[in-house]
Design a protein that fits this description.
- Keywords: Membrane, Transmembrane, Transmembrane helix.
- The protein is α+β, with helices and mostly antiparallel strands and 263 residues long.
- It contains nine helices and ten strands.
- It folds into two domains: 34 residues; 222 residues, no CATH class.
- Strands 2-1-9-5-4 form a five-stranded antiparallel β-sheet. Strands 7-8-10 form a three-stranded mixed β-sheet, with no helix packed on it.
- A hairpin with a 5-residue loop joins β1 and β2.
- The radius of gyration is 23 Å and the shape is globular.
- The C terminus is likely disordered.
Length: 263
């Protein structure tokens, strides 16, 4: 074999090894980001976690995705994403959220001002289920983050009614979450993880579950505000628990348990 061929073969080997190493690194990074709860688990605990994730995907994720149009029509279900840098919101499906660019000192100062307002809101407000029932409650909503979203929501779903008229008939249930997304695209499958299986029992659940990697050089920082409406006469109670693992373990006798027992 000539010296040139040996050099080319060596270079080819080095490149192949480098590509494999990089692939393994990013695969392990994704695994850690996507499944942080898998660290230091026993085999039984890992099996239980996998079972819960599969249950979530099968009976909550898919149900929201498959019934999105029905839920939005019947219950006015929607989720808005609020950009931390601009405080602008959107519920436009299949729209990619572009990272905010600042070219001037004025733009940088404005972005920092918005970030400060955003941080102040989440420092003062816990991520808990909330219900809007009265006009006075609407008037007292945070004017930087939440109220502008509700104004858009009401204009979209109740265009010919005042706030007072809407809240005379409906209660608005909502959950505000501090969320960061890499290359985020708003889709119907991410429009809030509501579990509506218990409406017959007058109970509503929001499932706090965001399994996607959160850190990237192209991370968009912001909040998701998920809203759904039910008539006051329905007397729907909003459950305080939102942790997805806790809820799935509590919901005994539901389809995922029955399906598992049948297999």
């Amino acid at each position: 074999m000539s010296k040139t061929k040996k050099i080319l073969l060596l270079l080819s080997t080095i490149i192949s090894v480098s590509i494999s190493a990089v692939s393994i690194y990013y695969l392990s990074l994704y695994y850690k980001l996507d499944q942080p709860n898998y660290v230091n688990l026993s085999d039984e605990e890992e099996k239980q976690l996998i079972y819960l994730k599969n249950s979530f995907n099968e009976f909550i994720f898919k149900k929201i995705q498959n019934n999105f149009n029905k839920y939005q029509k019947e219950y006015f279900m929607s989720t808005y994403w609020v950009n931390q840098d601009t405080l602008e919101s959107s519920d436009q499906l299949d729209s990619h959220i572009q990272k905010t660019e600042s070219n001037t000192d004025e733009e940088k100062n404005k972005i920092q001002e918005n970030i400060d307002k955003y941080s102040d809101f989440f420092n003062k407000n816990k991520e808990i289920p909330r219900t809007l029932t009265l006009k006075t409650e609407f008037d007292n909503l945070d004017s930087n983050i939440v109220k502008p979203v509700f104004e858009k929501y009401l204009t979209k779903f109740f265009p010919n009614q005042s706030v007072e008229q809407v809240l005379q008939t409906y209660n608005l249930y909502y959950f505000v979450k501090n969320s960061s997304f890499s290359n985020f695209t708003l889709s119907s499958s991410r429009m809030g993880w509501w579990n509506l299986d218990f409406l017959k029992d007058k109970k509503l659940y929001f499932v706090n579950y965001y399994p996607w990697p959160q850190e990237s050089s192209d991370t968009n920082n912001g909040a998701t505000i998920s809203i759904i409406a039910f008539k006051k006469e329905d007397n729907i109670a909003f459950n305080n628990e939102t942790d997805w693992k806790t809820l799935l373990q509590e919901w005994k006798g539901l389809p995922w348990d029955k399906k598992t027992n049948e297999n």
